[in-house]
Specification:
Two copies of one chain form a homodimer. The two termini of chain A are 25 Å apart. In chain A, strands 1, 2, 3, 4, 5, 6 and 7 form a seven-stranded mixed beta sheet that branches. In chain A, strands 8-10-9 form a three-stranded antiparallel beta sheet. By secondary structure, chain A is an alpha+beta fold. Chain A has a domain of 150 residues: Nucleoside Triphosphate Pyrophosphohydrolase, CATH 3.90.79. Helices cover 24% and strands 22% of the residues of chain A. Chains A and B meet through β1, β4, α3, β5 and β6 of A and β1, β4, α3, β5 and β6 of B. The first copy, chain A, binds a DNA duplex through α6.
Amino acid sequence: MAEGLPDQVAALRPNAVVAVDVVLFTVRLGDPTGRAWQVLVLERDDAAFAGRLSLPGVLLRADETFDGAARRALAAKAGLDASQWYLEQLGTFAAPDRDSRGRVISVAQLALQGSAQIRLAPGRGVMRAAWLPVRALPPESLAFDHADMLRVASNRVQSKLRYSWIAFQLLPETFTLSELRAVYAAILDPALLRLNTGNFRKAFETLFAADVLVPVGTRARAGRVGRPGDLYRFTGPVLGRWERELPWQGSPEPGPDDTTLDTAG
Amino acid sequence: MAEGLPDQVAALRPNAVVAVDVVLFTVRLGDPTGRAWQVLVLERDDAAFAGRLSLPGVLLRADETFDGAARRALAAKAGLDASQWYLEQLGTFAAPDRDSRGRVISVAQLALQGSAQIRLAPGRGVMRAAWLPVRALPPESLAFDHADMLRVASNRVQSKLRYSWIAFQLLPETFTLSELRAVYAAILDPALLRLNTGNFRKAFETLFAADVLVPVGTRARAGRVGRPGDLYRFTGPVLGRWERELPWQGSPEPGPDDTTLDTAG
DNA sequence: ACAAAAGTGTTTATTGTACACCCATGC
DNA sequence: GCATGGGTGTACAATAAACACTTTTGT
């Protein structure tokens, strides 16, 4: 940070355009597993990128934090009130040619929210927003380097699902273990649906023991058929983690597993 | 990224000062385990931060990548040729008050290199640089929010040591399993030194089977006493990972485990 | 010869998976 | 009743830790 004299002279002169883009994920429990994991995209009508999709983003304001800008982007571009949503920094993208209009540095943020709590309320200035299934989204359909951001975000969520407790950010206040399993199946591997209920439950044994997952007493309203599951509430810290990673391997997604940015061997 | 019309008009006007700071870690195999894990810091002589330490950093240039700037920072501030070193993006720090001279956004980079390959070659314009043990470094001694960066970097390395193959970036071309164990012990937990050699070796069984760790034939020159260990070479990709995380728990470092930036519950 | 450290194998405890069984609901 | 899905317990397989033993060096 500008310790050298030549740097210090210029220290107060802005030298970059900084934007914030948001990768907002949700899981639609009603949809089939292959399409349940969805991402929010905007449909662009610019001349330059006609027909292509992009992530919601804004330019950073003078005294704004990154997550402040991210929440503002969701409000301004999609009419979403994200003031209470889970948000974390994903990484900063700065390939010199990533934006044709000049050099723009973008801080990508990852947001998670349960689909039940999301209400797309189109207001003034809101763009056409759409939810698309992550697994069925062709990378070419995204403008700029937003496909890179989506890839990094997907990898991040898949990893984090195994060692942290973020899965509960994608569920409503109370939920059944089946719904929890649906989240894991949608993001990690559909094969988890064919896993035994007992084994799935056992993986969360420590959370039950620590009262992080507490039964709420009630049963879920009957689904279609079969016994309704017990309802649970998550009381643990959002940033909580397991001591030992969950055993379920993510689906062997080929290609670079770039959780790691800016790496050169 | 500036899709809205109001944003687009201003899209080419720089709106922020962007810097790049580097957290360079090494492990000195000679030192006692408690002090072997070290970080490079600069001793500041500014009036504002007299006597305090800081991480090497520079302002980002117009057409420079982040890791380009990071390597330049190491060269300019400490005289290190980091052109071939392992580097990854750590996160971007932007608290509005993090720099008293104005709002500066800093992209922190994590660098790893074996201590044997590091040659501090003070040249013109190079600042006083020092290697300090990470575990014994009081957070207050660092200027700006560099203590935050160091904390995030430490957590990142500790996690990554367990699921990826970066440990080998901290070792010379050929090394013994004892030296490898010393790296893990220094960063994760000194108790690993008291772990049986056989069990440690068994953890790397898959790497031996995949010829990622290959014996180089020779024996290490005798240490102090006892049988010298076999020498090995790491041939795998820098970004390689284990399918299953290593079992060794990091030392139960209290405090926030912030690998996660910008999170608000 | 002895101590110290490295390498190899076996035994035991812990953890993950598979399977069998009972419970509650819709038809 | 019967099919379907949820909840509980047990048996088997895989993995981590503990331990015993052999090899190679310096003193």
